[in-house]
């Protein structure tokens, strides 16, 4: 990669917590940060001159910027367990921590964000450092970590939650997230796509892109927590992301997106409360260097947006050079094809400042301010560009309605700083407007207007061999409907005739298929028609994994927990109904005897042969004291015992839902349970040995890697806890 591209990649990392490949949490509280002085005279001078803060509030603005950022959490809204998590938080954890005093600070009861729907996002007055370090908050911290790993909670900055809400996602939307890592906003998009949990395959999908190959794997880790078959992670430069094609009734058509999130690389001065090193690194040259890249990414976004579609442009910078200047340039280039939407009524309760209509450009080295392009000397034309200034034509400026942009100031609601603008595409972009060719005869000059509607006509560039960087991915190979792998699976699990076999893929061309994944029909279409031009990092949710000796039980593939909610609607056999008490037994004991289950579950299990099963809990509306959401767990029916194959953090999640609190001891050693007398997280060693002896011949389950060839970036998909549960 050339120097220019390396710099671009570096710039794209320096953003909303996207700097240097570091975790946003560790970036804020790493070693040595306590020595950083939270002073930057140039920063103060610059923003006083730009007048982004209302008169009389600047000192309050600066005081807030120096305070640690309070922690905020968001509950995963689409999962049926959201209400249970919310109930657990409100009735237990929030009550336990309120009125505590830590290091002289009184801990207040967390409050819901007034502008976030359904009380699914909460604001505390605790910093992440306090939550992580204080012994008094140990259980609360472990709860957050565990539920985050399970995909039920996201520890996300409040202002970061805004852009996905303004996109107004519906389940049929095709969505592009252009600069997606680390993935908190991507996760929101996925949640909104799956707003109806009764639909395993929404018509829409999310394509999440990032320029940095390594950060793409962080993105994969985030997305996998939600176990969606409608997500694809790709690795491209956002400013030149390829146009993809899809097959529509036998014809190739360009893929246009209904919704695009354009959360561009930025100087990140809105994150100073958390990313403390910005204080010493901040200079106006950062914005001058990023402006061109931001504009190119935004232009590429609107090119790929469908007419009638919606794109949200956002930064975690307060600088108008990165904010309003980019929007104004984009609107001017569009010649009326784009308009700023009025989003003032979309997030009631959110405090924001209207977009600016005038601003200046400061050259740091010389200390000179410029109010228009005409004032810039030719020697500065490489650093300062015409698009950095507000429009000079008052009528044009009025038509742009830049006041519809939204700037969130930290001191107004104790948040980070942020900028967001909502763009709606009214017509094709001017440079994409071509008229349809008229059929012969008679011959007409090309692009002659014939009265038909103007449309986007895209002639793809000649294909070039794509350069690959980073880890070489295993292939994505779709199975045919008559693949021999399906017959035993179909018979063993009594799959519905509507099961979409064509949506199943594996990650190897040769040898035994170790894992089977599923994607939605729409993503399959994208994959099959663009293999030459797109670099796919990951897609699909794992639904089956191969056993060592599974054939002797009738099927070589066991069910995978991460894909059970996608697969379960098609399964017609090998289902055992379990109660709350059964859940406690199955998730606290390694190999419980069948006799440990209640009579109904025991009777159903005894009718089944050995092998993979579904353990299903159905809520009882007449008993509000038990979880009021369905639960499906993957399990194994042995000779004399039954077990659940559920990752550790998910085990903790389900146990909390049924009243058994599990948490690690000091230094993370061992697990302790509370809330149920007599329960232990693992069976006595003697009982375990007895079960093992009685289950001779039971199939052991392969330890599974994500890629067929052992992907070094594999996160284990939280990994089924197979090793601990093998017979």
TrEMBL record:
GO terms for biological process: tRNA methylation. Residues 667-676 have a biased composition (Gly residues). GO terms for molecular function: tRNA (cytidine-5-)-methyltransferase activity; tRNA binding. Residues 718-727 have a biased composition (Polar residues). InterPro entries: MeTrfase_RsmB-F_NOP2_cat (IPR049560), MeTrfase_RsmB-F_NOP2_dom (IPR001678), Pre-PUA_NSUN2 (IPR057285), PUA_NSUN2 (IPR057286), RCMT (IPR023267), RCMT_NCL1 (IPR023270), SAM-dependent_MTases_sf (IPR029063). The active site is at 316 (nucleophile). Keywords: Methyltransferase, Nucleus, RNA-binding, S-adenosyl-L-methionine, Transferase, tRNA processing, tRNA-binding. Gene3D superfamilies: Vaccinia Virus protein VP39 (3.40.50.150). S-adenosyl-L-methionine binds at residues 179-185, 210, 237, 263. It catalyses: a cytidine in mRNA + S-adenosyl-L-methionine = a 5-methylcytidine in mRNA + S-adenosyl-L-homocysteine + H(+); cytidine(50) in tRNA + S-adenosyl-L-methionine = 5-methylcytidine(50) in tRNA + S-adenosyl-L-homocysteine + H(+); cytidine(48) in tRNA + S-adenosyl-L-methionine = 5-methylcytidine(48) in tRNA + S-adenosyl-L-homocysteine + H(+); cytidine(49) in tRNA + S-adenosyl-L-methionine = 5-methylcytidine(49) in tRNA + S-adenosyl-L-homocysteine + H(+). Its main location: nucleus. It is an enzyme of class 2 (transferase). Residues 61-426 form the SAM-dependent MTase RsmB/NOP-type domain. Belongs to the class I-like SAM-binding methyltransferase superfamily. RsmB/NOP family. This is tRNA (cytosine(34)-C(5))-methyltransferase. It comes from Paramormyrops kingsleyae.
């Amino acid at each position: 990669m050339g120097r220019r591209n390396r710099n671009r990649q570096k710039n794209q990392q320096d953003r909303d917590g996207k700097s240097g490949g570091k975790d946003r949490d560790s970036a804020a509280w790493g070693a040595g940060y306590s020595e950083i002085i939270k002073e930057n005279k140039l920063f103060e001078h610059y923003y006083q001159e730009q007048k982004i803060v209302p008169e009389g509030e600047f000192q309050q603005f600066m005081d807030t910027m120096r305070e640690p950022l309070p922690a905020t959490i968001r509950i995963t809204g689409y999962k049926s367990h959201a209400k249970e998590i919310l109930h657990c938080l409100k009735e237990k954890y929030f009550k336990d921590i309120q009125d505590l005093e830590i290091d002289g600070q009184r801990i207040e009861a967390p409050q819901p964000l007034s502008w976030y729907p359904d009380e699914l996002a909460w604001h505390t007055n605790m910093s992440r450092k306090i939550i992580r370090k204080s012994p008094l908050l140990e259980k609360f911290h472990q709860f957050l970590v565990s539920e985050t790993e399970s995909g039920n909670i996201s520890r996300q900055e409040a202002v970061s939650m805004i852009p996905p809400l303004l996109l107004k996602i519906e389940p049929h939307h095709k969505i592009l997230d252009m600069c997606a890592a680390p993935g908190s906003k991507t996760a929101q998009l996925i949640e909104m796509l799956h707003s109806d949990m009764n639909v395993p395959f929404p018509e829409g999908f999310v394509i999440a892109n990032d320029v940095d190959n390594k950060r793409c794997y962080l993105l994969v880790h985030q997305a996998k927590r939600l176990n969606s078959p409608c997500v694809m992670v790709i690795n491209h430069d956002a400013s030149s992301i390829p146009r993809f094609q899809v097959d529509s009734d036998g014809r190739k058509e360009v893929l246009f997106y209904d919704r695009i999130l354009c959360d561009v690389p930025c100087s990140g001065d809105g994150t100073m409360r958390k990313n403390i090193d910005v204080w010493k690194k901040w200079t106006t040259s950062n914005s001058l260097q990023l402006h061109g890249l931001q504009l190119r990414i935004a232009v590429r976004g609107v090119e790929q947006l469908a007419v009638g579609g919606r794109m949200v442009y956002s930064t975690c910078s307060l600088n108008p050079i990165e904010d309003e200047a980019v929007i104004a340039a984009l609107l001017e280039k569009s010649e009326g094809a784009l308009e700023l939407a009025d989003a003032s009524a979309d997030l009631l309760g959110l405090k924001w400042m209207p977009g600016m209509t005038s601003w200046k450009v400061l050259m740091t080295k010389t200390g000179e301010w410029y109010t228009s392009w005409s004032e810039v000397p030719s020697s500065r034309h490489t650093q300062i560009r015409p698009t950095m200034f507000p429009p000079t034509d008052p009528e044009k400026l009025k038509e742009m309605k830049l006041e519809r942009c939204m700037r969130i100031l930290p001191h107004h609601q104790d948040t980070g700083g942020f900028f967001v603008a909502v763009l709606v595409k009214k017509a094709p972009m001017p440079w994409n407007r071509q008229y349809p060719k008229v059929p012969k005869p008679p011959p007409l000059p090309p692009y002659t207007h014939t009265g038909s509607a103007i449309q986007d006509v895209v002639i793809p560039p000649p294909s070039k061999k794509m350069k690959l960087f980073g880890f070489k991915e295993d292939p994505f190979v779709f199975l045919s409907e008559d693949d021999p792998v399906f017959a035993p699976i179909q018979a063993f699990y009594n799959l519905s005739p509507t099961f979409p076999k064509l949506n199943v893929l594996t990650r190897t061309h040769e040898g035994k298929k170790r894992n089977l994944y599923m994607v939605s029909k729409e993503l399959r279409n994208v994959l099959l028609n663009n293999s030459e031009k797109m670099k796919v990092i990951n897609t699909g949710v794992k639904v089956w994994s191969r056993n060592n000796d599974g054939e002797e039980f009738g099927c070589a593939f066991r069910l995978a927990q991460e894909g059970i909610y996608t697969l379960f609607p098609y399964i017609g056999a090998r289902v055992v109904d379990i109660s709350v008490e059964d859940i406690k037994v199955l998730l606290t004991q390694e190999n419980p005897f069948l006799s440990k289950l209640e009579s109904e579950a025991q009777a159903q299990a005894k009718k089944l042969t050995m092998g993979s099963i579904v353990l299903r809990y159905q809520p009882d509306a007449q008993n509000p004291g038990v979880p009021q959401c369905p639960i499906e767990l993957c399990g194994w029916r042995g000779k004399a015992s039954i077990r659940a194959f559920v990752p550790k953090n998910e085990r903790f999640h389900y146990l909390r839902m049924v009243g058994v609190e599990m948490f690690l001891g000091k230094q993370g050693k061992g697990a302790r349970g509370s809330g149920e007398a007599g329960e232990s997280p693992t069976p006595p060693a003697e009982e375990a040995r007895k079960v093992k002896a009685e289950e001779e011949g039971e199939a052991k389950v392969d330890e599974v890697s994500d890629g067929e060839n052992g992907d070094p970036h594999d996160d284990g998909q939280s990994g089924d806890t197979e090793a601990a549960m093998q017979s």
